[in-house]
Structure formats: C-alpha cells, structure tokens
Specification:
The protein is an alpha+beta fold. It has 3 domains: 100 residues, 3-Layer(aba) Sandwich (Rossmann fold); 70 residues, Dna Ligase, domain 1; 238 residues, D-amino Acid Aminotransferase, Chain A, domain 1. The protein is 35% helix and 27% strand. Strands 13-12-9-10-11-14-19-17 form an 8-stranded antiparallel sheet, with helices on both faces.
C-alpha cells in the first residue's frame, strides 16, 4: 500500500479522497491555489503545497507544478479526483514517467474513451449496445445529410472530443442540418481544439442510466449497479438516484453483466462509469467516464463499498476487495448537487458563508468542503456540496430527503436548495416518471414565480 498520496484536486472531492486515505493509514498531500489556502482539505491534510494563482490553468491544471509537488513531498501516488486532469492521458503518462503512480486507468484507456468515436467503436467490439450512428467522423455537411437520411431524423451532431454538452447540436429535419452541423463543428473547435464531429440517432424521451464498474487491471471486474441521472439542465446532472426507478432486477443484472465483462475484457484498472441512454427497454451506449463520478456516493450508499478505497487498492496492486457475488443492493439513495447558484436563474453566487447548518441523522451524508465563514471563490465550478440520502426503499428515501432539505441552511450566498424543495413536491418525481428533458420543461413553467 502507498505511504503518501497527493490529491490533485480541490473542494469536496479532495476532502472525500483525503478521508479515504486517512482510513487506510495513508498520509496526504493537499495542493491548492492561492484562492484555496483556507480550504478544508488543505486544513486537514498532513502536508500542503501552493501550486499557483487562482486561475485553474496556472494551478490545478499546471502539470509541471503538480509533478514538482510530488517530488518535493515524496508522494508515491496521485489521485486526480474528477474534473481538472482526471481524464487527461498526458498527465497520467507524465506522472508515471516520474515514478509516481496515477490512481486511475492506463493512459491508453483514458485516451480511447476520451475520443467519443473511438469509444463507440470499442464499445461495439466489447459487446456493449450502442446508439445507431456514424462509424467515425462525418467530414462534410453533404455526408452528414446522406447519413441523416439513412438513420432518420431527428439526429444529434456531437463533438468527437466533447463533453458537458459543448459541441452538441440537434437537427430535427433536413432544413436544420447545415446550421446544426456548422455550429457543432465551430463549438467543438473552440472548446476542444478539434472540430471533428460524429452523428447519432436522437432518442426522443430517453432516461440517462449509467453503470458503475470496477476493474482490477488483470482481467477481473465487477459492476455495482446503475444510477439514474436523467434530471439534467443543459446536459449537466442535478439529481441522481440509485437504483433507477425505471429498471427491475433482471434488466439491472443483464446490463451490469455486459458492462463488467467489457471492462474485464478491456483489462481496465480502477473505477469507471459506462453511460447509456435508455428508452423502450433498450440501452444505448453514450460514453465511458474513466474516473470517479460526482454521484458515486449513492452507489456507496446502496452497496456499502468505498469506491475511492477500491481505486487506491487497485493502483497499489492489491486488487479489488470484492467479487460480484459479494455485492448486494440495499435500499434506495438519492443525491442532490448543491451549487452556489440562484435556484431560478442558475447565476453563480460566490461569497462568504455566514451561517452553515447541514442536515444529519440516519441515512444522511453531506459531502462538502465548506464551513461557516468560508468564502466561495468565483474561479471554479459552483458545486459546493452534495446531499446524499439513503432509505430502505424509494418512498422512505424521498421522505428523508424532504426532511433534510428543510434542515439544510446555507446563508450568505444563494444555493440551489430551493430547486430541490420544489422537485420533492412534484408528483412526477414522486412517481419516478421523468426523462432527460423533464427538468428543462419543468423550469420553463417558471416554478419560482
């Protein structure tokens, strides 16, 4: 096992990794920008290193500074968390070249799954069901038009190197295609430096289902069930559930087994998530995230398995602590992402937290790096915490969540807590009847007027 791990991230995920390390008896190194000098993960780490000014490109994305921090502190491994450099194959290669273990999959697997076209080809080869679409990049608008006629409208044009909804456009008819194609390529070039796009059949009312997997890098793998991440705004997840209200045990085991076998055949190491659109009882591969997910705590809640510990074990060569037959799904869990944003407009709301009271009690977990008096900096993602609630069934979970939302107090800034209070009172949410378009349609009703 490692003696010392450097955590190449910030906020709640840095604190989450730090806690797992401490429970394993591993010393921790926190890195931080000047804006995060008072962050909780910095306060609790065994050592800390300032790696630059507030701008992420000069601190958390500064690979030479991170490597130097490893060398200065003698860290044997780096945990990248999520975001920032967590899916940067070059970072993984550079770290390993300096004799420091990257806690995650190989650079090759990061690179394969980071290219959406190559990821889809790989998924097909591994037996994972995919959305009907182009085999590779669609290089001209004429080729796009021809392919759209083959699979039928509406179609989705997506950046090959994309993510987070950037470089993604819909063409509902031939009249929309030229503009959507040009816009997608332009956005892809601006956001990712690569204007390659591919096409898929657009599913009209799908759910977003993702399967959590763990691989030991030696041909062994397990799945830990699915999460339903259908409640999204602008392709960004807001509320997640495990297990999905839309699946039964048979469909869960079927898609889980497919994903576990694929990961085993790939020789994948560590945690990953295979994401699908799900419609009319069919799964269609979207992408694979080669890292820990923001919503991983709800899987931990229903399985009792610490995903960060498993990541560290695999990276250290100790393998997985569980086999598939050990994994049981108990109860239901929901996560609400609490952002420092106005709940109606989603305008960021940085500033000082003047009063902070998180909820507690049986089945309640709050992953957050904030505290009373902490100042939310304006330079980074607005996520300030995650409320995770677990119950014996979905009804109990929803009731517990309602109580927790009433208890949760964050004064001094605006947060998205009022949005979740609105959602918890909605009958569609209570019934689990929603798809990936539901939340944006709900917001169009102006619920805060």
């Amino acid at each position: 096992m490692f003696n010392k791990i450097l955590i190449a991230n910030r906020g709640e995920i840095a604190l989450r990794v730090l806690r797992a390390c401490k429970e394993l008896g591993i010393r921790t190194v926190a890195v931080h920008s000047t804006a995060d000098a008072d962050a909780m993960h910095v306060r609790l780490a065994d050592e800390s290193v300032c790696i630059g000014p507030p701008k992420a490109s000069e601190s958390y994305l500064n690979i030479p500074q991170l490597v130097a921090a490893c060398e200065i502190t003698g860290a044997e491994a780096v945990h990248p968390g999520y975001g920032f450099l967590s899916e940067n194959a070059r970072f993984a290669e550079i770290v390993e070249a300096h004799g420091v273990k990257f806690i995650g999959p190989s650079a090759e697997h990061i690179r394969i799954m980071g290219d959406k076209i190559e990821a889809k080809r790989t998924a097909q080869r591994l037996g994972i069901p995919v959305v009907p679409g182009s085999d590779g990049a669609v290089e001209t608008v004429e080729a796009a038009a021809e392919f759209a006629e083959t699979i039928g409208y509406p179609v989705l044009i997506k950046a090959s190197a994309g993510g987070g909804g950037r470089g993604m456009k819909v063409a509902k008819s031939p009249d929309d295609l030229a503009e959507a194609y040009a816009t997608a390529r332009g956005e892809a070039k601006a956001a990712f430096g690569d204007d390659a796009v591919y096409m898929e059949k657009l599913l009209l009312t799908p759910r977003h289902i993702e399967v959590q997997v763990l691989g030991d890098g030696k041909g062994g793998a397990v799945h830990l069930g699915e999460r339903d991440c259908s409640l999204q705004r602008r392709h960004q997840k807001v509320w997640e559930e495990a297990n999905s209200p839309a699946l039964n045990a048979e469909s869960r085991e079927k898609i889980g087994a497919i994903c576990a076998k694929a990961v085993a055949d790939l020789g994948y190491a560590g945690a990953g998530t295979i994401e699908f659109l799900y419609e009319n009882g069919e799964f269609y591969f979207i992408e694979m995230n080669t890292r820990l997910q923001v919503e991983h705590p709800i899987t931990e809640a229903i399985t009792g398995i610490d995903l960060v510990v498993e990541q560290i074990r695999v990276a250290a060569g100790a393998g997985l602590s569980v086999k598939q037959s050990d994994i049981e799904f108990k109860g239901h869990a929901i996560e609400c992402r609490i952002n420092a944003e106005n709940a109606a407009t989603f305008t960021p709301s940085p500033g000082q937290i003047t009063y902070y009271h998180p909820p507690g009690g049986l089945g309640v977990r709050v992953d957050s790096g904030v505290y009373q008096g902490y100042r939310i900096p304006p330079y980074y993602d607005s996520l300030i915490g995650k409320l995770i609630v677990h119950g014996r069934n979905r009804v109990e979970c929803l009731m517990r969540l309602r109580r927790c939302l009433d208890e949760f107090v964050v004064d001094g800034i605006e947060t998205t807590i009022p949005l979740f209070r609105k959602l918890i009172d909605n009958q569609d949410i209570a019934n689990g009847m929603y798809d990936i378009h539901w939340l944006e349609k709900f917001l169009e009703t102006r619920p805060f007027d």
